[in-house]
Amino acid sequence: MSKNTLKTLYVDELKDLYSAENQLVRALPKMARAASSDKLRDGFEKHLEQTKMHVERLEQIFRSLDESPKGKKCMAMEGLIKEGAEVMEEDFEGAVMDAALIGAAQRVEHYEIAAYGTAREFAAILDEPQHASLLEETLDEEKETDEKLTEVSKEINVRAVEPISGEERSKRGQLRKMPRRVA
Ligand code: FE
Ligand code: FE
């Protein structure tokens, strides 16, 4: 296939995504194990199931293209996962470790959002509407995951500021909701 067509680039980008998703399938269980918050762990486990689906959608696209999904390694995902692994080796504990894991996971989601956005546009212009809608389904799940991570981070970051008791935490939560008094 000629190297100067968008179609070739499209297939290259899909291979890159296929590698990225497969690397993530291996990394997410480790991230889930490193999480202390049940909510965060459940979130990672749920995204692992979604990620397996992302792999399947890409395989479906490759079948329709009659191309192999293999042959590329996503260096960006490798780097992002390495950074996540580095963080997991640190002595961070509890909510601080969770805050670090969320930071790593959101970097991954943003990378995927960018890559799927590009791939979906390529699919649309190459007149592959079925690919475009499969890619969009995944894109939506990546965005949703990113938003959920932001939500969980709101709870976890508060806990990570300093170790506090449950009672004190709920007091702080209430204080935060009260309007600020003008002195
Ligand atoms: Fe994914
Ligand atoms: Fe993802």
Oligomer: single chain
Output the number of helix runs: 6
Uncertain residue ranges: none
What's the CATH H-level homologous superfamily? Ferritin, core subunit, four-helix bundle
Question: What is the terminal-to-terminal distance?
Answer: 72 Å
Which cofactor or ligand species appear?
fe (iii) ion
Percent of sequence in beta strands: under 5%
Walk me through this protein's architecture.
The chain is mainly alpha-helical and 183 residues long. The protein contains six helices and no strands. It has a single domain (6-177), classed as Ferritin, core subunit, four-helix bundle (Ferritin), CATH 1.20.1260.10. The chain is 81% helix and 0% strand. α1 runs antiparallel to α4 (94-125) and α3 runs antiparallel to α4 (94-125). The N and C termini lie far apart (72 Å). The structure holds fe (iii) ion (FE) (2 copies). The site of one fe (iii) ion (FE) has 6 residues, from α2 and α5.
Describe the structure concisely.
This protein is mainly α.
What is the strand and helix layout of this fold?
Elements: H1 6-34, H2 38-65, H3 75-89, H4 94-125, H5 129-161, H6 166-177
List keywords for this structure.
binds fe (iii) ion; 81% helix; 183 residues; mainly alpha; Ferritin; 6 helices
